[in-house]
């Protein structure tokens, strides 16, 4: 009898322990915030994709971010990096973050305007006078306000990186004045303001994913495109383009985006790590990008491209021609929002002039 009683007690203990064990599993299936290295212990994987190739400062900085995050989380987070549009184009990868099928991408602000229209202000031609002012505004209060606008789109903006000042290349003619844009089949990023601004200048703009651009220029589907010098050189555009004109018409920021669902599933410590690493790697991206411009400009000339600067008078004429487009977008975006950016630029310029 005693033996049967002991067996019953043992069986009861096993059942109680099993029930407790199931409760822990349910807890780990909770909101996901308990996850991470202190939580259930499983490794979290980040799929980070960009459109530029693996020689570009953006990718080199992404590798730095990967190193910092994996080291500082003791491997609780692993980062897989993908370049050259392997995971899709900027718009598609941003949508993948919203859907949770990808965790990180770093697009230009232009395609982000399809998700948060106010971002078009960063693509106002001739908005930022130089990189120093751009850094101060983007890394300051106004820049943070724009990052906060991403949350409603299930996106988290961790930091601003640098694409850079955009210049025009084409296979037809040097762009000396606005009149030279006449009839030029110009690829633009998928952003209505870019389309409207280049139409106002007399070009024939076509929105196109970055991954399709080289072939389009090679086949003559488009005559030209506009991107910063490092991209023009490192993506080999000199192989299919004859002219590069330093219009510097837009300073293009990148935004380091993370899926909000994934970010919210990290521990607070991990959220701090991925954010601080994005800022640190962003500083490297800016440094490498700026160091490269002068050297790559010379390389483009050595590869046989016709290279011309734009005179201040020609730039002033372009500003005047696109101004009505900017006025229209200021109405759409909100005049107060646009003015806040212009005020921050003026304040940064005043501070630098002291
Ligand atoms: C690369 C793009 C590129 C951008 C463009 O994914 O599309 O022309 O300037 O850098 O983000």
UniProtKB/TrEMBL annotation:
PROSITE patterns given in the database record: PROKAR_LIPOPROTEIN
Sequence segments annotated as region (Disordered): 26-45
CDD domains given in the database record: PBP2_TRAP_YiaO_like
Span of the signal peptide: 1-18
Keyword terms of this UniProt record: Signal, Transport
Family per similarity comment: Belongs to the bacterial solute-binding protein 7 family.
Alphabetical list of NCBIfam families matching this protein: dctP (TIGR00787), TRAP_S1 (NF037995)
Listed name of the protein: TRAP transporter substrate-binding protein
Organism: Metaplanococcus flavidus
Lineage of origin: Bacteria, Bacillati, Bacillota, Bacilli, Bacillales
